[in-house]
Specification:
CATH architecture: 4-Layer Sandwich
Helix content: 10-25%
CATH topology: Metallo-beta-lactamase, Chain A
Number of strands: 7
Strand order of the largest sheet: 1-2-5-6-7
Radius of gyration: 12 Å
CATH class: Alpha Beta
Distance between the termini: 23 Å
Length: 81
């Protein structure tokens, strides 16, 4: 992944995904966060592990206003914010 712990893919002006490695019980699953942009505000769906360089890139996209975690597994990294 580009010598980084994450890979950002911009699918559209208002939509991007962030892929990161993720292991649970020794098994590699991968992890994906969706970034939804409305004006200059961002919603982060299924937040991934906090990494300073990723946070800088996300801030460059806009201001994070909301985190959405659809189930208990997606809450794993939300307390890092």
């Amino acid at each position: 992944m580009d010598n980084k712990e994450y890979n950002i893919r911009n699918w559209h002006a208002e939509l991007a995904t962030v892929d990161t490695p993720f292991k649970l019980f020794g098994l590699g699953f991968g992890n994906r966060m969706t970034v939804i942009k409305s004006g200059e505000q961002l919603l982060l769906h299924s937040p991934v592990k906090y990494v300073h360089s990723l946070a800088d890139e996300i801030r460059a996209m806009g201001e994070v206003k909301c985190f959405m975690s659809p189930n208990a597994m997606h809450y794993l990294h939300i307390s890092e914010r």
